[in-house]
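Posting here for the record, re: 1,3-dihydroxyacetonephosphate.
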Amino acid sequence: MEKVYLGTNTKMYKGLADTVSYVEELCRLTADLPREKLELFVIPSFIALDAARKSADQKLLRLGGQNMGWAEEGPYTGEISPRMLLECGATIAELGHSERRHVLGETDEMVNRKVLCAVEHGLTALLCIGETAEEKEKGLADEVLQMQLKRGLYQLPPPTGEQLWVAYEPVWAIGEQGVPATKEYAEERHRTIRRTLVQLFGEERGAQIPLLYGGSVNPENAVGLIQMEHIDGLFIGRSAWDAPRFSQLIRSVLDVCFPKETML
Ligand code: 13P
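Prediction output follows.
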């Protein structure tokens, strides 16, 4: 593993002032950590992006949008275009989060249009996929993941690891009521995801795409998850929203991935 991907989506929680103080503190607390080994990112509310860009050192922290419209501009009231995201300092577009799919009705086809548009505009598309509890129960998890990948990435030319990241976030694992996936279960699903990406994009490109796990990641399970062969990063909600707590989690992950002698 060359570097780990660690980031958070602050959902509809932190506003403008909270985001600014959060990213300032996170940058300060993690400034000493080597960025060639750590891709750190924060995905705040749209309204806080520009201010976050001004308060965070871009060399320490990347920013993203929690959603994106599928056109450069147009009659899409309430949507944010890739150009607008870039203008506010975002370099990542988080697409197809389970809350958008299952609470707000987003389909694979909508997500696909967004992925194509994000990549075309030079953003990193962070595609989120994951099965529901019912699908897991019925033994359909791998089929669901394959379907979400094949539909969500339809007609995307083989991407580089900068153009596409995939986050596996089982719906049943996310949020207050969520139960984190075991590291073994997550690893199995990540294997399926990797296999599908290789099928879609070939050995070389398919193997380059970073795979992140998300869903009730916490300081207790983060280290076990990141040590799994096919888990390249963690996408975290609640456990990352306090900067000192997140910084501790980041340090413990880096410590196991890159034991001290290699960090010097
Ligand atoms: P939690 O870590 O709070 O379960 O949220 C995960 C998530 O939705 C990240 O996008």
